[in-house]
User: Fold this.
Amino acid sequence: LSMASEGEEGHVTLDVVFQLLLFLFSLFPELQNGDGQRSRMDRGTSLPSMLEQKIYPYEMLMVTNRGRIKLPPGVDRTRLERHLSPEEFQRIFQMSMEEFNKLALWKRNELKKRAFLF
Assistant:
């Protein structure tokens, strides 16, 4: 990286980097905590896997007292809610995914427990 002016070929300006970071934070709010400060990403979660979340019916993702037979392949056990359709997410949590992601981690975990997705 270089602090070159925008016109110089082969260099990236700090402004471009900053804009890219803002864009990534908007895509992945879990990179920030509720105060707008950065927090570390979950270990084992790659960017491609975050972008390629498959959607499954709620019933296939639920955790019950008797356990679950088997999760579908590729499902992130720690982020079951991300595999719900936006409509089903809204129905179960009574809020959008964006609103959910703005909540504190402890609150998200409580809601996931109540929905049998923890």
User: Anything to note?
Assistant: Residues 1-6, 34-44 have pLDDT under 50 and may be disordered. The CA atoms of residues 14 and 20 lie 10 Å apart. The two ends are 41 Å apart (CA to CA).
